[in-house]
Sequence to fold (189 residues):
Amino acid sequence: MLSRYSDSKTKKKEYKGIVLYHDGAILEGHFTNGGISGDARKIFGNGDYIQGMFVNGQMYGSGKHALHDGSYYDGEYVNGTQQGKGHQYSPDGTDYEGMFVNGKFEGEGVLTVGGTQIWEGTFSNGILNGKGKFHDKMGKKSYEGDFANGKENGKGVSISKIGDRYEGEFLNGSRHGKGILTEYNLIIH
Fold:
């Protein structure tokens, strides 16, 4: 059911209401000259939904997209794409909060993978690049320093599960070049 109202000066036709689709989807919101504009919500037949501000049929500004499996994105959109600050969650334990550009992690953010690995720092094209931190909640390893393509690369400090500490240079995720290794041996009687 749609209710119609018009602006006599601009001849702009506007509607507010609900549209039911043959596939079971429901669209509720404001429509202007045939397109959705303003605050709206669309629920798909499978239970997925999108909700937020629309401009000319595209999400723009603050919004949320949730999938029936429990995954969601809640944050900013530009022309229907994740752009700006947002939070993306997946039931497999992948959780990212930070900046997005063109739907990818870009800029400062925190990524948790599998509920145990935490990556924090500057992301580029969805991967940690530049200064950052990595911590495994299971205690296997922690690292703080430079990253390239998601791997330790450049100068940094790594601490292993048993307490070994390496401060120095890394290349492609491995110790490489100059550095200081301090080993800890623990003997329990």
The radius of gyration is 24 Å. The chain has a mean pLDDT of 88.
